[in-house]
Amino acid sequence: xxxxTVELVLETEKHFGxxxxxxxxxxxxxVGEFATLISVLRSEINNPxxxxxxxxxxxxxxxxxxxxxxxxxxxxxxxxxDLGME
Length: 86
Known about the structure:
Layout: H1 3-16, H2 22-27, H3 31-44, H4 51-66
Helix pairs in contact: 1-4, 3-4
């Protein structure tokens, strides 16, 4: 995992009140996969957020942290190849 990814995971954990294992984080390739993981983890702590809302929040976090244009942050966007994150 690169520095960008680590920073995103830490910010996401803080924002959503969840804990993401290194193993789970290392398997995520797309923004959509990450939004789904966040929704599943929120459900496991009995505080669910629907995946579309999770995606929207994640999109804003990525935009704010890394200045990636919102239009590029799609569910299919890959963090490294498409968004240029480490």
